[in-house]
Amino acid sequence: MGRFDGRVAIVTGAARGIGFGIAQRFASEGASIAVLDLDGDAAADAAGRLELADGARAVGVACDVADASSAEAAVEQVVADLGAVHILVNNAGVTRDNLLFKMTEDDWDTVMGVHLKGAFNMTKAAQKHFVEQKYGKVLNLSSVSALGNRGQANYSAAKMGIQGFTRTLALELGPFGVNANAVAPGFIVTEMTDATARRLKMEPEELQRLNAESTPVRRVGQPEDIAAAAAFLCSDEASFITGQTLYVDGGRKVG
Predict the structure, then answer these.
(1) I need a labelling partner for 135 at 20 to 30 A (CA). Which of 106, 184, 209, 241 fits?
(2) Residue 168 and residue 101 share a domain
(3) pLDDT, tens digit, for every residue of 67-94?
């Protein structure tokens, strides 16, 4: 038996990268998966590539998490298609990096809208199902950038906001059988970090090497590293853990 047998998990931004890694890990442990992404075709394609346990299903759903009506419609579609929702992973994200004096209002609003407002919209839509069934798991994706990172005033603020949001969810929803936690990844090899490398005018492999050298465990992270932490925090084994942010960064936060 898998630890997520009979569970239904929504993972936002799951067409690629960390989100897809989390979706695949949950699927491998028995969950039915709703892959949410702004690109509906990419969501459907990703859902079709998941390796599912016997009896589990996967659907791809187009969703703009920054839009409350889209988020609510997506959750209701998942419940209609898969029968329930038990786990919500707020992973959808974008970057609009720049130094403060170059950062535009649109850069700020876009990042806040997807990361912070998106987590709010999705959680508000899902929590009514969680409260009614007296069971639910919310996992929010923060980042080591929450501690500050040059050129990421918007992203850092949003990711630290996620941590405060998570602690408040734990207080409000705990009496209804809902756990809320966050994972804060360090440098993870994804299309997003590859794009960052190119923006810095270097090859992705070079940026990975530099980050590995500055990480105590001397390697960069993979989506599977975050998925392993997510699987634990969303399992019943972690039922006495809530309101926490787990840094999964190879030790870079130390010191």
Answers:
(1) 184
(2) yes
(3) 999 999 999 999 999 999 999 999 999 9
CATH number for the domain that contains residue 157? 3.40.50.720
| Domain annotation covers residue 2 | no
Side by side, the strands of the sheet bearing 245-248 are 58-62, 32-37, 8-12, 87-90, 136-141, 178-185, 245-248
pTM over 0.90: yes
Per the structure, the complete domain to which residue 196 belongs is given by 188-220
247 counts as catalytic? no
Same structural domain, 140 and 214: no
Q: What is the pLDDT of residues 144-183, one digit of tens each?
A: 999 999 999 999 999 999 999 999 999 999 999 999 999 9
Q: Mind giving me the DSSP string for the chain?
A: --TTTT-EEEEETTTSHHHHHHHHHHHHTT-EEEEEESSHHHHHHHHHH--PPTT--EEEEE--TTSHHHHHHHHHHHHHHHS---EEEE-------B-TTT--HHHHHHHIIIIIIHHHHHHHHHHHHHHHHT-EEEEEE--GGGG--TTBHHHHHHHHHHHHHHHHHHHHHGGGTEEEEEEEE-SB-SHHHHHHHHHTTS-HHHHHHHHHHTSTTSS-B-HHHHHHHHHHHTSGGGTT--S-EEEESTTTT--
Distance between CA 18 and CA 227 in Å, rounded? Answer: 7
One domain for residues 13 and 73 = yes
